What we know:
This protein is an all-alpha fold. Helix content is 87%, strand content 0%. The chain contains three helices and no strands. The radius of gyration is 26 Å and the shape is rod-shaped.
Amino acid sequence: MLRYTLMRLGIFVGCLVxxxxxxxTGVFPRGLGESNGMWIILLSLLISAPISFVxxxxxxxxxxxxxVDRVERxxxxxxxxRSQEDGADDAARAQxxxx
Length: 99
């Protein structure tokens, strides 16, 4: 998961550097007034999103498999705890009925 996040961040930073260079050379228009920084960031996000979607497909699938595995383990642990508690409750009830 960390690897995917770092790769995605790297693609964004790469796009940010390229867009910054293109804006400052005049290829892309500058933002209005003081909005130039925000314009560069938004444009970088817009460009990096589809690149990340295509380039990181395999890494995203691996990360999602890790998340699914973690969720399944958490569900199994929760169910095991519930069944332990139910067993303890049933034993306590049975003991109180016989007393």
